[in-house]
Amino acid sequence: MNRLLRIGFDTFLTSVTPILGWFLLGILVDKNLINIFSLIYPMQFVISAIQSIFGTGANISSIRDKNKNSVFSGVVLGSGIGLIILGCVAINIDKYITFMNMDIDTYKIFGVYAVIQMFFQLLLNLSLCKLYFEEENKRANKYSLLFNLINFSSLIIMSLITKEQIKIVGISVICMSVFVVIMMFRIVEKTKFKINIVNCIKYDSVYLFAEISMFIIYLFGFKNSFDFGEKYILATSFATLITDTQWDIAYAIKTVAQIDITKKEFSYKEHIKNSRKLVCLLIISSIIMGIILYPSYKVDIMATSIIVSIELVSLYMYPIYLTKLTYIQLEHSAVKATISKQIANIIRIFCSFISSPFCTSIGLAVSVIYQLVSTQYIIEKNKINMEMK
After folding, report:
1. Helices (H) then strands (E): counts for the chain
2. Distance CA 47, CA 85 (A)
3. If both were cysteines, with which of 151, 189, 268, 363 could 386 make a disulfide (CB 3.0 to 4.6 Å apart)?
4. Taking the domains of the chain in order of start, what are their residue ranges?
5. Banded pLDDT at 12 (limits 50, 70, 90)
6. pLDDT tops 90 at residue 305
7. What is the DSSP string of 76-142?
8. Phi, psi at 267, each rounded to 5°
9. The dihedral sign for the CA sequence 245, 231, 152, 127
10. Measured on CA atoms in the order 255, 259, 264, 265, is the torsion positive or negative?
11. Residue 125 and residue 199: Cα distance in Å, rounded?
């Protein structure tokens, strides 16, 4: 439970800081800036996909393939690919904003900033991943705290000094650049360039393809929902604000499972027990956030309740199928695990094109049911014992 909380703490800071930052920018600079969070939301799955291969996959490869060069090589490749992809989005930000049915003049400057912030986040995630696998969680906590503190304080302090968006963005980017460069020099050790990309993909293939699918799901799902007007834009933004951090923190469940399974120290019963405790805390925090933030948004109760209810029920079920899927991938068959997860993702992709403001929620509900059934079927059919201790 302690490791779950430590890793979850880093994710909490990484997730809640942008939310709080956009919320305050909406008060200090322009009330519409809170919607930047929803505008750029699909892009987080791009950096997660890159991290899956060149962060998680590279670190597992370092242990299983006894290739100590894979971590440094992964950071270099991951950073380069992230720079190319996110750089293209930043350059074409007008087209991206138009595609998402939002106003270019209102969101352009901070839209570019949000994309740059995503790149810095990728560099942080690649660095922290190395520390997690080395079990230097306290050190990871320190860097995560500093990163988010500098990010948040530079943005808000400049917003109090000036309302000129370019100045606010410029100073914040400079501050973040300096910190990230120093951090990476201290964490990432330079070695030879050698990496088995096929193995890096295999070791985290389930989640790599899941992140790619999630990008498609939310890109088109949010675009579809936003077509139904401001009522559903607000409901979706509000639901995302009070549940996204919780989903991100719950990702620590997978990280801890991967580390323990890789090191042959895994106990399913113990892991599920600790995971349930974490998820219950996260659900309570979502409800509290909803109560606190509601007066500021005054969203449609019915629409918001439907979206939030599906999110929280799905979150409660998350540790069960996530842990089983992780174990199946690392100890039984990466192919079976990947196929199972991709079927769930394909279901969600199809649902994201349903002509309904609740299309993404419908997809989430159906995919959760499928994953609960499919993972249990694989476990029982192959008589997999999930206890290593």
Report:
1. 17, 0
2. 9
3. 268
4. 1-203, 206-389
5. low
6. yes
7. HHHHHHHHHHHHHHHHTHHHHHHHTT--HHHHHHHHHHHHHHHHHHHHHHHHHHHHHHTT-HHHHHH
8. -130, 115
9. positive
10. negative
11. 20
